[in-house]
Amino acid sequence: MFKFILSKITLLIPTFLGITLAAFLFVRLLPGDPVTILSGERGISDERRAEMIAQFGLDKPVLVQYLNYLKNLVQGDFGQSISTHRPVVEEFFERLPATMELAFFAILIAVLVGVPAGIIAAVKRGRWPDHVLMGSALTGYSMPIFWWGLLLIMLFSTTLGWTPVSGRLDIINYYFEPVTGFMTVDAWLSGQEGAVTSALHHLILPSVVLSTIPMAVIARQTRSAMLEVLGEDYIRTAYAKGLPTWRVIGIHALRNAMIIVVTVIGLEVGTLLAGAVLTESIFSWPGVGKWMIDAISHRDYPAVQGGLLFISMLVMLVNLIVDLMYGWINPRVRDGK
Amino acid sequence: MQKRLIAISVLSAVCFLPQAYAAPKTFVYCSEGAPSGFNPQFYTDGTTFDAAGQAMYDRLVQFNPGETSISPALAESWEVSPDGLTYTFKLRKGVKFHTTKDFTPTRDFNADDVLFSFNRQWKADHPYHKVSNGNYEYFTGMSMPDVLKSIDKVDDYTVKFTLNRPEAPMLANLAMDFASILSSEYADAMMKAKTPEKIDTDPVGTGPFQLVAYQKDAMIRYKAHETYWEGKPKIDNLVFAITKDNAVRWQKLQAGECHLMPFPNTADLKAMQENKDVTLLSQEGLNIGYFAYNTTKKPFDDVRVRKALNMAINKPAILDAVYQGAGKVAKNPIPPTMWSYNDKVVDDSYDVEGAKKLLAEAGVKDLKTNIWAMPVQRPYNPNAKRMAEMIQADWKAVGVDAQIVSYEWAEYLERSKKGEHDTLLMGWTGDNGDPDNFLAVLLGCDAVKDGSNRAFWCNQEFNDLVQKAKSLSDQGERAKLYEQAQEVFKKEAPWATIAHSVVYEVARKNVTGYKQSPFGLHQFKAVDLAE
Question: Stretch A260-286: mean pLDDT, rounded?
Answer without folding.
Answer: 80
